[in-house]
Amino acid sequence: MKSEDVCVFCKLVSLEMGISCTYWVCPWQILHLAPSQRPGEFSAWVLSDGNMYKVPVQVPRVFYLNTRAPNTEEYPGARVNRVLPHGRQSFNLIEVCCTVWL
Q1: Which of 8, 39, 53, 61 could pair covalently with 98 via S-S, beta carbons 3.0-4.6 A apart?
Q2: What is the C-alpha to C-alpha distance for residues 91 and 53, in angstroms, rounded to an integer?
Q3: Cβ(38)–Cβ(69) under 8 Å?
Q4: Range of the domain at 78
């Protein structure tokens, strides 16, 4: 894909965010990552093509519960199949997504 094609592809997104097209084509250099007032949201200060931008970053709050209990209906979340770290066996793996931490 040529850089002109990428530029045409990202023009709509660039116009929506109010930034130049070089933001998407040039490499980024992350200068600072700052937490916001809300959990799971950060502001990344990046340098691209000599310009500095503030980019919002959202980190999903997802954790996995691996239980040997056969009845998993009372747990929050959905049952999933994943490969666990260090070759651990997956019994009844539940994926729990949290939007707000109290």
Answers
A1: 61
A2: 45
A3: no
A4: 61-98
